[in-house]
Every structure is written in C-alpha cells, then in structure tokens.
C-alpha cells in the first residue's frame, strides 16, 4: 500500500492571481503567432532573430506572468516564482504585507510574490498590520471584501495558528532559531527554457 500523503504537505488554501493573467496570455498567443509565421516563411526571408526573440518573449511572459502561484499548507507558505519555488515555514514569518505585491519577511530575509497585490492607490490606503491577528473577528472575510484583503487576512490567520501550534511568539529568539525556516528550490524548467532561447537568439543574430 502506498504511504499516505503527509498532512503537513496538504494544501489548505490556494490563492488566485489578482492581475497579469490576461496580459500574459495575450503575450504568449501573439508571440506564438509570430513564431509560427516565422517558421512558415523562413525560406522567404523572415528574420530568424525575430522568431528567436518572439520565442524568448513568450517564454518570459509564461514564466513571469502565468507560472507564478501562491498556496499554503499546514506548515508552509509556498511561493512559486519565475526562477524558484520558496517554502516559508508559517511559524517563521516575521512580517507580512500585501501592497502592490505580497512581501514576506522570514529568517531575516524578504521574499516577494507577484501573484497577489493591490493597485497603487489601494496599496497607499490599505492598513498595515505589523503584528498578528489581535482581533480575528474584525479581520474575518466579509461579502464585498477586496480579494487582496481576504488573502492578507487569511495568511495572518494561518501564521497565527502556526505560531500557536508551535508555541512560538512573534519576534522571539525561538522564532528566529526555527530550523528549516525557508527552503528554496530552483525552477529548472523555466530557467532552462530561457537559457535555450537566449542561445538561440544569439546564434540567430550571427546567421
């Protein structure tokens, strides 16, 4: 019998992107059309460097706008970005805020996710909460709440629960000394594709 999945790795909340998807898909489609057209008409003088540049732009749009994701497990906040996937232990989160992007401080380092964010104007007027959820009822999601507000509230709730479960106080020495506070995994697929496109572009410029 196959072992059951560790409950600590089970996804408890998957957050939806607040922007960038439409632009990302449009860019991928348009660059895809250029690549197909270039391959079809390469014998008629269509520049190879345009094909390579379009392919590179399409890969960058996918990696930067469509690939990023944000979710939480029982133990970690997971940020999948262009070049890496970062696993941040919830109890190790020192500070967190959703502005134009989500910024999280843990293990004395700052990590950013572009998946969730506010508009520039909304970011200026939003209320920053440097501590935990002292009044969770006041911060509970309500009908009509902006999605970025819901994400911030939900993340604070998950962080507070993780701290309570581990007996950790925010800003304490125990929090700073937590083992495996952050784990980073390189995103080899997008990095490899971007590298290959750069090589293809360089070669096409000399042909």
Automatic annotation (TrEMBL):
Superkingdom of origin organism: Bacteria
Membrane found in the keyword field: yes
Transmembrane segments: 22-42, 48-70, 187-206
This protein's UniProt keywords: Membrane, Transmembrane, Transmembrane helix
Entry keyword Transmembrane helix: yes
Record's protein name: PH domain-containing protein
Lineage, uppermost ranks: Bacteria, Bacillati, Actinomycetota, Actinomycetes, Propionibacteriales
């Amino acid at each position: 019998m196959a072992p059951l999945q560790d409950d600590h790795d089970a996804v408890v909340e998957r957050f939806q992107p607040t922007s960038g998807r439409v632009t990302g898909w449009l860019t991928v489609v348009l660059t895809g059309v250029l690549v197909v057209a270039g391959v079809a008409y390469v014998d008629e003088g269509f520049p190879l460097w345009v094909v390579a540049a379009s392919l590179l732009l399409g890969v960058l749009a996918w990696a930067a706008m469509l690939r990023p994701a944000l979710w939480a497990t029982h133990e970690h906040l997971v940020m999948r970005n262009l070049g890496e996937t970062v696993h941040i232990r919830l109890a190790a989160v020192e500070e967190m805020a959703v502005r134009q992007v989500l910024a999280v401080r843990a293990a004395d380092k700052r990590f950013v996710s572009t998946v969730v964010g506010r508009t520039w104007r909304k970011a200026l007027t939003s209320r920053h909460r440097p501590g935990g959820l002292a009044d969770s009822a006041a911060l509970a999601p309500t009908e009509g709440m902006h999605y970025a507000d819901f994400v911030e509230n939900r993340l604070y709730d998950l962080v507070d629960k993780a701290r309570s479960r581990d007996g950790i106080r925010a800003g304490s020495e125990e929090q700073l000394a937590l083992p495996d506070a952050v784990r980073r995994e390189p995103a080899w697929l997008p990095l490899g594709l971007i590298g290959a496109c750069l090589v293809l572009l360089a070669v096409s410029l000399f042909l």
